[in-house]
Amino acid sequence: MTFASLIGSKYKFVALVSLLIFAGFTATSLTSYFVAHNSIAKQITESALPLTSDNIYSEIQRDLMQPIFISSLMAQDTFLREWVISGEMETDKITRYLAGIQEQYQTVTAFFVSNESANYYHSSGRLKAINPDDKQDAWYFRVAQMSSEYEINLDYDTAKPDRLVVFINYKVFDFDENFIGATGVGLALTKVKALIESYQNRFQRKVYFIDRAGKVTLRGEAYQDSTRLFTTPEYQALLSSDSITEQAAFSYSDDGNHVHVNARYIPEFDWYVVIEQQDNQLTSSLVTSLIFNLAVSLIITLVVLVVSYFLITTFQTKLEYMATVDKLSGAYNRHGSDILFKQCINFAKRKNTALSAILLDIDYFKKINDKHGHLVGDKAIKQVADVVKSQLRNSDALCRWGGEEFLIILPECDLDSARQLAEKIRAELTKTAFLKDDFLSASFGVGSHIDGETEAEWVNRLDLALYQAKHKGRNRVELANS
C-alpha cells in the first residue's frame, strides 16, 4: 500500500467514524423526538383534553346549581302561589316580586307564566299571553306535560328575543298539588363564554360549543370561523350518530396541521363542548429541543473528528516509523527499503538522472558476537550506522539490509561518486575506536542502476561485488559489473 493510499484510508476512516457518530446522535435524537411527541400527543388526547371538557362541564353544572335553587324557592314561595290562587290581582305585586328576585340574585331574567290566565309575567310587567300555536311558547306546554319538576332549557329570552339565555323552568303547584303555572330565572351565557376564554388563554386550546347539526353555537373571541360546519369524517361520525355519544376523542388534519379533539355532550344544552389543540403547539418545544440536540451532536462530531484525525495521524506516524525503521540502527528496514527502492528508481527514470547504491557488510561480525556477546554486536551495528549517516546527504537513505549488512541508496549520484563515498565511509570506520583500541571495518559493493534492470537484479550485482571485496581480503571497495 502506498503512502498516498494510507493517507486516503485515514481520511476515509475518520470520515466514516464521524458519519457513524453523527448518524447515531441523529437517530437517537429523532427517536427521542418521536417518542416524546407520541407520548405528549397521547397524554393530550387521553388525559388533558378530556380533563378540560370535564372541568368545563363541572363549571357549567356549578353555575346552574344556584339558578335551579332559586327557581325551586320561587315554585315553593307562598306569596306566589297565594297570589295566583287569589285570581292574579294587582299585577304590580308579581312584577315587584320578580324584579326583586332578579336584582337580589343577579339573574338576567325572572318570570312566571300562569296556567289559568296564560299570562307571561316578567320583572318588567306582563309581557304577553302565551299561545300554543306560537313556537316561542312551545317550551311552556312542554313543561306543563313533563313528569320532572324542572328542566334546563336554552332558548331566546321573551323579553329580549335576540338574547340567548339558559332558563330554569320550574313547575308550580297549589297547596292541593294542582299545576298552576311555571316560574324560574334565566342565566346569561356570558359566564360560560368567560370560562371558554379562560381555558383558551391558560392552555392555548380552542374551546367552543356546537349543536348536533354541527353548527357553532357558543365560542370565544379568538374563534373566527363561527359559521363553520364540521364536514370531516371524524366529526360526521360524531354528529350523525343516531344515539348520543357522551364523549369522543379523535384527530384530524386541517391544512396539513394535525389537530387533537375531545368532544363532550352537555345534556343541559343539547350541545357538545369541543376542545381542540393543534399539533404544532405541542411540538414547537420538541422541535427546538431536537434542533439543539442535533447542533450539540454536530459539535461533538466535529470535536471527535478533529481529535480522531490527530490521534490517527500520531499513531499512523508511529506505526509507519515502526514498520519502516530498524529500532537498533535507526536505518530503514527491508520493508522501508523496498518502498524507497521503487520511489528512487521511478524518480531516476522520470528525471533521467543517475542512481547508485552501496551494499556494505561489517567484517568479522560473527567473531565480535562470539567473543563479546550480542549486546556488543548490537553496539557495533549502531556505531557503523552512525558513522555511515554522518557521511550521507539528506537525500541519501541508509537501510539495514540484513543482520550486519547495510544498503545505501544514493539518488542523483553516478558510479564514481558512489565509489568515492564508499571509500570515505570505509576510511572513517577504520579511524573510529570501537572497544578501547579495537576498530571496525567493512567491505563494500558499489553499483549504479542500469535502465531496465529489476531491483533484484541490481541487488544481486551489488551482492556479487561485496562478495569480491570479502574474497580479496575485506575492508575494501569493489565495483559491481555492469
Polypeptide structure, described:
The chain is built from twelve helices and 16 strands. With 482 residues, the protein is α+β, with helices and mostly antiparallel strands. Among the domains are: 191-281, 2-Layer Sandwich (Beta-Lactamase), CATH 3.30.450.20; 325-479, 2-Layer Sandwich (Alpha-Beta Plaits), CATH 3.30.70.270. A six-stranded antiparallel sheet has the order 3-2-1-6-5-4, with helices on both faces. A five-stranded antiparallel sheet has the order 8-7-11-10-9. A hairpin with a 4-residue loop joins strand 13 and strand 14. Helix 1 (3-76) packs antiparallel against helix 5 (190-203) and helix 10 (374-391) packs across helix 11 (415-431). The protein is rod-shaped and about 160 Å long.
Query: What is the CATH superfamily label of the domain at 325-479?
Result: Reverse transcriptase/Diguanylate cyclase domain
How many angstroms separate the termini?
A: 32 Å
- Return the CATH class of the domain at 325-479: Alpha Beta
Q: What overall form do the CA principal axes indicate?
A: rod-shaped
Largest sheet: 6 strands, antiparallel
CATH topology name of the domain at 325-479, in short, is Alpha-Beta Plaits
Looking at the overall shape, the CATH architecture of the domain at 325-479 is 2-Layer Sandwich
Q: Averaging pLDDT over every residue, what do you get?
A: 84
Unreliable runs, pLDDT <50, ≥5 residues? none
Helix content class: 40-55%
The total beta strand count reads: 16
Tally of alpha and pi helices: 12
Q: Report the structural category.
A: alpha+beta
The topology string of helices and strands comes to HHHEEEHEEEHEEHEEEHHEHHEEHEHE
Query: Within the largest sheet, what's the order of strands?
Result: 3-2-1-6-5-4
Domain GGDEF: 353-482
Keywords: Cell membrane, Membrane, Transmembrane, Transmembrane helix
Subcellular location: Cell membrane
EC number: 2.7.7.65
